[in-house]
Structures are given as C-alpha cells and as structure tokens.
Amino acid sequence: MKKFDAIIIGSGQAGNPMAFKMAGLKKKVALIEKSQLGGTCVNVGCTPTKTYVASARCIHVTQHAEELGISVPEGIRADLKKIKKRKDDIVQSSRSGISDGISDNAYITLYHGEAQFLTEKSIQVGKETLKADLIFINVGASALIPESFGESGALTNKEMLELEEIPEHLIIVGGSYIGLEFGQMFRRFGSKVTIVEKAEQIISKEDVKVSKTIQKILEKEGIEFILNAECIKGKKASENQVTVQISCDEGPPELNGSHLLLAVGRVPNTDTLQLEKAGIRTDDKGYIIVNDQLETNVPGIFALGDCNGKGAFTHTAYHDFEIVSANLFEGGKRKVSERIPNYCLYIDPPLGRAGIDLKQAKTKQLKVKVGEIEMNKVSRAKEKGETAGFMQVIIDENTNKILGATVLGVGGDEIISSLLNIMYADVPYTTIRDGVFPHPTVSELIPTLLAELKLPKDLKEEF
Known about the structure:
Elements: E1 2-9, H1 15-24, E2 29-33, H2 39-43, H3 46-63, H4 80-103, E3 108-112, E4 115-117, E5 122-125, E6 128-137, E7 141-143, H5 157-160, E8 169-173, H6 177-189, E9 192-196, H7 208-220, E10 224-226, E11 233-238, E12 241-245, E13 254-257, E14 259-262, E15 266-268, E16 301-303, H8 314-329, E17 342-345, E18 351-355, H9 358-363, E19 368-374, H10 379-384, E20 390-396, E21 402-408, H11 412-425, H12 430-433, H13 446-451
Parallel strand pairs: 1-2, 1-6, 2-3, 6-16, 8-9, 8-14, 9-10
Antiparallel strand pairs: 4-5, 5-6, 7-15, 11-12, 12-13, 17-18, 18-21, 19-20, 20-21
Helix pairs in contact: 3-4, 3-6
C-alpha cells in the first residue's frame, strides 16, 4: 500500500489544478486517470467542439460574403478530415501540456487505470492500493444512451468528433445545448439536419422568447425541428441508414437518416467507483451528494465537477476547485450557494446567460422590472450584418440589483460577463447604466437597455 497526502480521481478541470495546487504546497499527490488527461473539456467537450464551431462559422461567413459586397469563388466546401485534424492537433497540444507538467513535478504520481474504493481512505487502481486522508473525486459525466436506442448505432458527442465524412442526413435526438451546437455546425458543413425534441420547445429550461428566437435562427439556416415527439425510439435500418420512430400513439411517422446523434442528457461517471465501500452517498441519478463546501458525507472526501450535480460546465468545475482549495489551504469560507449560475450556448449568434430568467422570476413570484432591446436596434450589430437576437436584463424592484441577464446575439458570450460582474459586485444596475462605453460596440447599448425598464406584462413575449 502506498501512502499519499491526497488522491485525486480524474484529471479534469478540477482534478488537475488541485493536483498542482497541492504539489505547490509540497504535498504528495496520486492522480488517477482511466482515459485521456484533461477530462471532458479538453478531449470531447469545450476544446474540440468550439474548434468545430470556429470552422462552421468560417464557412458560413464565406458563403454569405456577397451580402457584405464581397465576391467569393464558387465551390466552397467543408473538408471534415482537415477540420478534424486541426481539432486533434489542438486537443493533443492541451494534453501534452498537462502531461509535461505532471512529468516535471516530483510531487505528482500519475496512475493510468480505473479507481475503485476499498475503504473510506483506500483506493485500488490496477494492482496498486493507494491510501490518503484527502480524496478528491473529479470523474465527470458521459452521454446518456436510453435503452430504446441500444441497437441503433447512435453516436454521442464523443463519436461525432471522430467522423471524417460529413453525414448526408444527421438526425439529432435532443433539442438542448449539445444538440443545437452540433446541429448548426454540421448543417453549415453541409449535412441535412433534423432535430427531434420531446418537449414543446427546444431548450425547454429557457424562456419562451429565447427558445423561439433560437429556433427561428436555426430554421433560417435550413435545420428542421420536430417537437412534441413522444416515445422516441431508434433502430439501424441498414449499414448506412438509421430509423427514428417519433410517435408511438399514432404509429408512423418514422424518420430515416444516415447518422443519429443522441443528445438527451448526461449521467455521472460514478457507477464503477464502488462508492458504497466507502459509505459515500449518492442521489437516485448517481450524483455524489455534497454539502455547501463540496464535501461528501465522509469527512475528507470531496466531489468536484459534473459528478456532484452542482454544475455541468468547465467553469463550474474549476470554481469547485477554487472553493475547496480556498477553504482547505487558505482559511476561506467559500460556498457553492454563493455562485451565480451562468453559461453560454455556442450557436451562432451565441447565447450568454447569468442569474435567473423571466420564467424563474415568475415561478418565484418576484417583483421585477425588465430592460430589453432587440439586436436589430444596435448599430454595431447592423454594421456587422448580424442582427439576430436580443438583450434582456431583469431587475429587482426593491433593491434595483440585477437578478439575471440574457444576451442572445453577436458577442453574447463575451458581453454577458460585464453584467455578471455587476451582479457579483452586488451593486445597483444604475452602476452600469450610468457608465460610458466605447463606440461603436454592442456593449454600448447596455445603458440604453437599462434606461427604460418595463414590467414583465408589458413585454411582447409571454413568460
């Protein structure tokens, strides 16, 4: 048995920084990884998909260059092999950077293999038994594959990134964030794309206006949507064809395509850890239950990142690391509950979200005021030829503080941070309303956005 100061299971966006943090404190660390270094983000998440998004935007802008007075040659097409090669090179560069950092660090020992708990503080990996008083679980999550698609030959986000030929007709089951991003990028690459969603709207967690606006943007690019699809099933019709049944009550219709992507949710990678041998509690979905400091019911064992159900993003995983690191090593008293929810949807134009939306404000029966402006009123957006979308900010009537913000439009993934900063500063919205912003930018319309606030009932869209 080998003794360490800490064992870290998973080299994702919380595990790696925790390993280097502890090594910096001259603590002996065992880092266990069963797959590729870097976790979901580096290998099958943010890095590769946003590399594809960039390629998809490039071809889209080129194909629409005539609208801005630019003549381009005919025959422009996407070369998926070259796109994949670029992606692979970027991913490998990130992996190599992590690997080199670990190799050069005398305090970190890397173990390749699957970790399994033996007791509260001992773990087996391969033929080795490791022991430590501090254990950090950062095992992430994987795509959910329902039983009804078990024989369909369906792809997940992971397999989609390994394709070298553009699908003729890509059927995507799941009209949420992953499905929409892949749908738009492969439509721009040249695939026919149909998105099937069981709910009455895509990205059903969002406000109706956000959902409808995004659907219109994607439909304009030629993506077909089938909503309210019940009892969805898939089967492999032939070597080159897959069939998706989208209605049980009425029999057909059936949808035939060349490829099928499942984007119906994710499940935590906790099923092989033998958590029961350590007495670590999970919920009914397999997420590890943690307190506000991300510690499990077993003292000294922490769960970070997607596997704790407290966030499903790279930035929340890294923030988990920051919370635990500050509390353990810097005398901090940080809590998960202090985190303001925020995320982006990387379609084009992107969606940036922070705090609550109107749907949540209504559910919580909050008294709010709303600032809203369409992107087609923004000069910079018109000049760039990208006027789809809108900006919206929700204000607490009593405190005049920002409760939430939505920026769907050009630069939305970057602009949202300026509003998020005001929320973290915990100051009135007038702080940013009364500021001066560079011209011409999209951000300069934020004061205008906040100049005339309305009640929710006065908005055009129901919520």
